[in-house]
Amino acid sequence: MISITDADLNTAMAAFLWPLFRILALIASAPILGNPSIPVRVKISIAVLLTLIIAPTIQQPLPQVDPYSGIGLMILVQQIIIGAALGLVMRIVFVAVEMAGEIIGLQMGLAFAIFFDPQNSGQLALVSRFLGIIASLAFLAIDGHLIMIALIAQSFNTLPVGPEGLNLPTFNALVLWGSEIFKSGMLLSLPVLTALLITNLALGILTRAAPQLNIFAVGFPITLSIGFLMLALSIIFYSPVLEKLVMEGFEVMASLVNLTEIKTP
User: Per the CB 3.0–4.6 Å rule, which of 69, 101, 179, 217 could disulfide with 128?
Assistant: First the structure.
């Protein structure tokens, strides 16, 4: 006769519940996988399926703690924080790309062209939306979603399930990585900004030379045309830059979970 005690049930529940919430937090906060257009049931199903695959491969022993106790709930919160932090790192990469689009659109005169962004559940400039789609395609092209899943699977061995979680230096590294939004956003928008700056200087000189010229009627189409032209010419150079930025994001994610080398699938 098979007898199952409460301790056996708690151990089995903990072995599934704690990894599930780390994976679920990653899916909820990461780009592409955490898109609000994806139904919640689908996200939960993906998290459950990944947990069923990853949980048996965890080599580090789980803490012998009742998952419904105070310490068990604290461990659960730590897993949510770890998963959300990993997803936030890659989310910053996409926010940097959208920041570049905001700067370009503002200088082109397209600040009024705003679309609803389902990724962030808010309004987003037209150029930001376009560059966000390019970044998403580049992310999928290099199997970024698979690398994230491989990284979260390896994190259970390098950062075991426990009450300690992330330390203060790790949070400091995450905060410093946030500055990448402004740095990378400016670097990505620099080619178009340079062309628009030269265009505005030329229009200023033209206005001084011909004061009767209606600069508002002429300047806006010229600025818009130059902006689209430079965006079309520079878009082919965005792919390697985006790939480099994404790989730097993966390196930060690996450092958060004490992983020295990312084993790609």
Answer: 101
Tell if the pTM clears 0.85, that is, is over it.
Answer: no
Q: Where are the beta strands (DSSP E) in the chain?
A: 114-117, 122-125
Which amino acid appears at position 179 of this protein? S
Phi, psi (5° rounding) for residue 65?
A: -130, 140
* DSSP string across 41-67: HHHHHHHHHHHHHHGGG--SPPP---T
78 close to 162: Cβ distance less than 8 angstroms: yes
Residues whose CB falls within 8 Å of the CB of residue 27, separated by 6 or more in sequence, listed in order: 33, 34, 43, 46, 47, 83, 87
Q: Are 150 and 53 in contact (CB under 8 A)?
A: no
| Cβ burial 189-222 (10 Å sphere, 16+ → b, else e) | bebbbebbeebeeebeeeeeeeeeeeeeeebeee
| One-letter amino acid of 16 | F
* Model confidence pLDDT, tens digit, residues 29-60: 888 888 777 888 888 899 989 888 888 888 87
- Backbone φ and ψ for 199, nearest 5 degrees, come out as -65, -45
